[in-house]
Amino acid sequence: MTSTPRLTPIQWVICAVAAIGFAFDTYVLLMAPLVIGPALQKIGGMRPGTPEFGLWRGLLFYVPALSGGAVGLIGGYLTDRLGRRRILVWSMLLYAFSAFASGYSTSVEMLLVLRCTTFIGVCVEFVAAIAWLAELFPEPKRREAVLGWTQAFSSLGGLMVAGTNYLIVHYLSSLPAIYGAQEPWRYTLISGVIPAIPLIIIRPFLPESPEWQEKKARGVLKRPSVGELFQPGFRQTAFVTALLFACGFAAAFGAIQQTPDIARGMTEVKAMTPAAQAKVAPSVQMWQEMGGLAGRLALAYLAVRIVSRRTLLRIFLIPGLVVIPLVYTVAANSSLEWLKWGIAAAGLLTVAQFSFWGNYLPRVYPTHLRGTGESFAANVGGRMFGTSAALVTSTLASIMPGIGDSARLAAAAAVVGTSVYAIGFIASFWLPEPKQEKLPE
Q: What Å distances lie between residue 242 and 33, 100, 126, 151, 392, CA to CA?
């Protein structure tokens, strides 16, 4: 039995840069639950619980994702047309600038526009990075391991933003004023530029995908086409992966990312001092991200040991049908401690599914269509449709039973989260199994 050669120094650098990129993607996206509420109150003059607050809160969750999904599909096409590395560099610059500038927003409209451009950069970067990594490591077992373990760092991004927000709140008095005030949500947004610094320095000098470059040089690289996704050879794959990706994002945006706001409104939390209340949301998000990290690590371990991709996905879908309703109907109405443990479990089961797609999608599309196919599932299915669950949950909360805004939001999250898990489980029966371990050419 031949052993797999050790990673070379440049391969280690590639893995490290990819891991930082995945972490940064999550970092800038998961700021939303921590900053949107305070930002609406400060620059929008809106009060929690009012229709205007609920509308803008939903818009700030959904419109950036909608924009990212639409432009991200174009980015996936350009990844196949112009190369993986070039698109990675430009997408990185876009979201780094946008994340920094959003901290200086003076209106909710300005914040919305900058969150849109941030999302666009992230949506394009994810697709390009997955295709790039998959083609740089063609050996099946190593590819599965590299994709699994580097994506695990996405959850470190969530832990980093929760930890950063906690430190900002703790050391707020020592930070310089912005527009005459010291507001944690501004510093949290600005901190998004920090992980981009090493990427800006290193990534332009890393190699292009040898598979894409070789085909391009020989003139045999086919022109990508979104329309090809709907031909008989790829139609089922395109629609089912988009639907399942949408279910995962709907669970994340329609339930899990609502949890910090649910926690803020709990009776137990309202009885705390203002200083203690300010630390509750980042603490809850920290528990969620710890669960998400455990889920990504579990996926990385299982991906090289379970052959059936349907079975691998259901390992996380089936328990979610029990965990999600318990978290939002029982834990959210019982105690903050129960909610923390519950959101950790929900995070494990939901976030693991995102790593699943990073491993699965490169195996079902050929080189010329890899970025386009991945982008259709992730950006059209996940970002454009899945994230609309945030708006659904915010709207549904206004008519749900319960005493107080927090209880009604939790009830809405329970309905949305449980529904999309059920849809995902049913759809998994139509998920095509990859025909081979090697990447299609």
A: 25, 31, 15, 19, 19
